[in-house]
């Protein structure tokens, strides 16, 4: 075992990371620095400070990263209209590179020679964290306790906590809770009955949204303004990136928007069933595609759609800091220069309906050309005949060959 002097631990203060903190101290005989990120998970992060101090930690970092998270990670991802496997808005995936980045920064500040995380050896997060660590600090030592220790169940973790006097809230209650991860973009649920993909989730599981059946009986209208592909205001009110996503989450949750029940393909090879609530993200995605529909050139828009699944896979698999993701981001950002204007949406019982969009300075929609009425010569419909014949040429050639084959075959019969 390599001698470690100091390690920076991504620390939530929950059961897993509290046990990891003590285990690191005992196993590696090293100093532990804790880092707790506030990325909008909706829970108090300050209790983590008291927990860390109680366990003998001297250097405790608690950082509010909400604005950076939305501005530098969520918004760039949404410029690409990113969806993994046709449904998942990557709420967990997009948070990991930010946490990894800040951990490495703290490791440099504190002269730590290692970093540690609480991701299991079965999941995607271990890959996302560690690819980030190595991309930002190639010689960093990574400690992944779930791949080293024999504490392979919640019960064993609770026994370890009991033995070492680690305070764990709710540890006396029976049954394991859902495994949840939350930030300003989403909240996820795994485990318990969700491990059977045939079983419907309990209604009591959902935390951010009402069921569509219980949503208001009257729709609510919302205007979102975009500048260079990013949302900047809601209903005429300028808000920060985090403020916009927070407000969209409230509105979406109120109207039962953004629930997802998904079986996804993990990077490590297995299929996994998870449930997600992404109310603000669902609204933002629909609005962004709407404003792009009138501001992007056709071939640019189609090329973006072609590349999006690969971009999504890069984020899902943990390659945010890779050169190929950066290259794609530069191209995506270049397409957003003229993605300016507003979109009007109707929110109603789980649905996000686009009912209007306009871009006074950058719209490519020309009503004089698109009209079904007299266009005063803006478009010569007779030109379409030549256009169609040229595009049909290869089809006509192939069809002619097939017709000749059929004639020859018939002549021999």
Describe the protein.
- There is one protein chain.
- This protein has helices spanning about 15-30, 45-55, 65-80, 95-110, 125-135, 155-165, 240-255, 280-295, 300-315, 325-335, 365-370, 385-410, and strands spanning about 5-10, 30-40, 60-65, 115, 140-145, 180, 185-190, 220-225, 230-235, 235-240, 260-265, 270-275, 340-350, 350-360.
- With about 425 residues, it is of the alpha/beta class.
- The chain folds into 2 domains: about 5-85 and about 90-180, 3-Layer(aba) Sandwich (Rossmann fold); about 185-360, Argininosuccinate synthetase, chain A, domain 2 (Alpha-Beta Complex), CATH 3.90.1260.
- The strands form 3 sheets. The chain has a 5-stranded parallel beta sheet with strand order 3-2-1-4-5, sandwiched between helices. The protein has a 5-stranded antiparallel beta sheet with strand order 10-9-8-13-14.
- α1 (about 15-30) packs across α6.
- The protein starts with 5 loop residues before the first strand and ends with a helix.
Secondary structure blueprint with pairings:
Elements: E1 6-10, H1 15-28, E2 31-38, H2 46-54, E3 60-64, H3 66-79, H4 96-110, E4 114-116, H5 125-136, E5 141-143, H6 154-164, E6 179-182, E7 187-190, E8 220-227, E9 230-234, E10 237-238, H7 241-254, E11 259-265, E12 271-277, H8 279-295, H9 298-317, H10 323-335, E13 341-348, E14 351-358, H11 367-370, H12 383-412
Helix pairs in contact: 1-6, 3-7, 4-5, 7-8, 9-10
Q: What is Rg?
A: 26 Å
Distance between the termini: 82 Å
Uncertain regions: pLDDT < 50 for 5+ in a row?
171-176
Please give the order of strands in the largest beta sheet.
3-2-1-4-5
CATH topology of the largest domain: Argininosuccinate synthetase, chain A, domain 2
Please bin the fraction of helical residues: 40-55%
What's the pLDDT, averaged over the residues?
Answer: 94
Please, how many helices? Answer: 12
Number of beta-strand segments: 14
The main sheet comes to:
5 strands, parallel
The number of domains is 2
CATH class of the largest domain: Alpha Beta
């Amino acid at each position: 075992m390599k001698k470690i002097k100091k390690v920076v631990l991504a620390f939530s203060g929950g059961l897993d990371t509290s046990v990891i903190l003590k285990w690191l101290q005992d196993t590696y005989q090293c100093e532990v620095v804790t880092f707790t990120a506030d990325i909008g998970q909706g829970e108090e992060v300050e209790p983590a400070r008291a927990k860390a101090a109680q366990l003998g930690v001297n250097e405790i970092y608690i950082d509010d990263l909400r604005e950076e998270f939305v501005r530098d990670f969520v918004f760039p991802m949404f410029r690409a209209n990113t969806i993994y496997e046709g449904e998942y808005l990557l709420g967990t995936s997009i948070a990991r590179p930010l946490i990894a980045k800040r951990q490495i920064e703290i490791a440099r500040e504190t002269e730590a020679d290692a970093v540690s995380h609480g991701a299991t050896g079965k999941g995607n997060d271990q890959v996302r964290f560690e690819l980030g660590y190595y991309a930002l600090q190639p010689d960093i030592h990574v400690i992944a306790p779930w791949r080293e220790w024999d504490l392979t169940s919640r019960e064993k973790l609770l026994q370890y906590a009991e033995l070492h006097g680690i305070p764990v809230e709710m540890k006396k209650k029976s049954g394991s809770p859902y495994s949840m991860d939350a930030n300003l973009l989403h909240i996820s649920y795994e485990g318990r009955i969700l491990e059977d993909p045939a079983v419907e989730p309990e209604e009591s599981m959902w935390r951010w949204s009402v069921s569509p059946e219980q949503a208001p009986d009257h729709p609510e209208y919302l205007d979102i303004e975009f500048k260079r592909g990013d949302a900047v205001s809601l209903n005429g009110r300028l808000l920060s990136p985090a403020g916009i996503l927070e407000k969209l989450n409230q509105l979406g949750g109120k109207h039962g928007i953004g629930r997802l029940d998904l079986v996804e393909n993990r990077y490590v090879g297995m299929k996994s069933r998870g449930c997600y609530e992404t109310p603000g993200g669902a609204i933002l995605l629909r609005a962004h595609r709407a404003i792009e529909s009138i501001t992007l050139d056709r071939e640019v828009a189609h090329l973006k759609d072609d590349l999006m699944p690969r971009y999504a896979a890069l984020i899902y698999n943990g390659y945010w800091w890779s050169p190929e993701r950066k290259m794609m981001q530069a191209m995506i950002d270049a397409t957003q220069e003229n993605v300016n204007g507003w979109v009007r949406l109707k929110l109603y019982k789980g649905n996000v309906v686009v009912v209007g969009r306009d871009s006074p300075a950058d719209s490519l929609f020309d009503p004089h050309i698109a009209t079904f009425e007299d266009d005063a010569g803006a478009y010569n419909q007779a030109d379409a005949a030549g256009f169609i014949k040229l595009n049909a040429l290869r089809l006509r050639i192939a069809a002619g060959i097939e017709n000749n084959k059929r004639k020859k075959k018939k002549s021999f019969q």
